[in-house]
Structure of Acyl-coenzyme A thioesterase THEM4:
Amino acid sequence: MSGRTTALAPPDGAEPPVRHPDAPAPGEVIGSHYEHCFGCGGGVPHGLHLEARAGEGVSVTAEFRVKEAHQGAPGLAHGGVLATALDETLGSLGWLLRVIAVTGRLETDYVQPVPVGTVLHLDAAVHAVHGRKIYATATGRIGGPEGPVAVRASAVFIEVKIDHFIENGRPAEIQAALADPDQVKVARAFEVNP
Ligand SMILES: CCCCCCCCCC(=O)SCCNC(=O)CCNC(=O)[C@H](O)C(C)(C)COP(=O)(O)OP(=O)(O)OC[C@H]1O[C@@H](n2cnc3c(N)ncnc32)[C@H](O)[C@@H]1OP(=O)(O)O
């Protein structure tokens, strides 16, 4: 046993999330955090190309169109791809808190199959923060933002420093990212926290 507290319910003493004063305005598109991200990057041909927008409070919305490359069963989205869409949407919540955070735990419920061609309408929100732990949920609906739920997830994200990526990433990609002014701009956006 590691002794980690991996429950998805916030513990006693957890606080409500606080929207950062420099968070993107409600409705503003949250740009990709990394061009080669499978979830949001424009440089990945078969990626999800998920585009998130800031919502009210500490929430986001996003859309993901399921393509042929995302199939698991014939004509249906792969469950792992749908989990990625939920994970990526949840990950973009870091822009509202202005913290860098990675997924620690992600629990996914698959409620309805999602056919190729479907636009999955996603929303996610942070419910509580406890130390470095960020408790959040996400929902994916089909047919529109108010349509029936197809997938949902509960997650714990863990706040990390930029060093997490520098120390753990493959050197070639890290060096390329550090040499890319746009990437450095993304990293700097998270450096100043009140
Ligand atoms: C620039 C923006 C970048 C945004 C990227 C978003 C992309 C989309 C989201 C992703 O897919 S991220 C990629 C998938 N996730 C990972 O690769 C994370 C891999 N895991 C790790 O690197 C480490 O396990 C982790 C950083 C999560 C934690 O290690 P640490 O050594 O920093 O934490 P530590 O073990 O000290 O635990 C700190 C707290 O977090 C809790 N914790 C740690 N791992 C947990 C876990 N897995 N689930 C729940 N809670 C967890 C732990 O219990 C503890 O709680 P307490 O403070 O209450 O004691």
